[in-house]
Amino acid sequence: MTTNKTAITLVQGDITRQSVDAIVNAANSSLLGGGGVDGAIHRRGGPAILADCRRLRAGHYGKGLATGRAVATTAGELDARWVIHTVGPVHSATEDRSALLASCYRESLRVADELGARTVAFPAVSAGIYGWPMDDAARIAVQTVRATETDVEQVRFVLFDERAYEAFAGEVARQPE
Ligand code: AR6
Hints:
Leucine Aminopeptidase, subunit E, domain 1, 38% helix, 19% strand, globular, binds ligand AR6
């Protein structure tokens, strides 16, 4: 496994309250909003984020953003410079979509590098409405961040509840730097 110098920190709370360079959104392919983290980010970040998303849809992303990919917009009124939207896979009991979930973290870090973002907050992508089991989502998230070469100095996983926090804490302990 490749090692990197990225520090992983864990916070239990609301990702829209974080002060970081970039906040990652667990979006859907339309880029036009939804529930969960996506709804919270658009609500607190204000209309500038949706305006940017609409511009993306009118330009290079006419068909939307593919699962596993990432793209940046303004962060509007959030205490961040950018929102990086990524589309997690819907969990499937019959098909292994882990590579797509790993891709969300890798692609988000690649976009963060392009932007020059050094601190990035991630939610537990796919582990809400998209139904991914939290322990496995945490394993893939931590493993992928640890294995990705990036200039990002701090990855902050922001977990909404104690259950999610414990899952990520367990993975960080299991997968030391
Ligand atoms: N801060 C941090 N974590 C949160 C917050 C918050 N404010 N709100 C929810 N979570 P989800 P997904 C947690 O459903 O599974 C949307 O409609 C939540 O408890 O936001 O990737 C999109 O438009 C869970 O642990 O994202 C898509 O259609 C984790 O964040 C779809 O949902 C992810 O839950 C994406 O589903």
